[in-house]
Description:
By secondary structure, this protein is α+β, with helices and mostly antiparallel strands. The chain has 3 helices and 3 strands, in the order E-H-H-E-E-H. The chain has a 3-stranded antiparallel sheet with strand order 1-2-3.
Amino acid sequence: MRAFLRSSNDVSAVVGVLLLVVPIYFVAMSALRYDAPGLHFFDSPILILGTLAIAFAVNARSILSVKLEPEKPPVLKIALLLRIWNLAEILLALFLLGALFAYAFVENFEPRLVR
Length: 115
């Protein structure tokens, strides 16, 4: 039986929180229309979306267990574990991603006049 390595629950939760600080700061300061220090540094979409993707992946890897058993035929077992902090960080990352996409849609949407 071969099992893929998982990171520690506490480590992935702390790394996820540290990674989510950047998008939370950016969304909060942008929503408040506050010109905070360092906001122009966080203005890069690659930085914001990258930290969201990494936080999602780290926490998803912590709650996801994948095992490949070498039987005839090989069996792939996938299990999800209920860890509240990791699930909360995944939901927060998805919420922030949705907020950023909603903002991008609303900001670039122009209504068409129908005659």
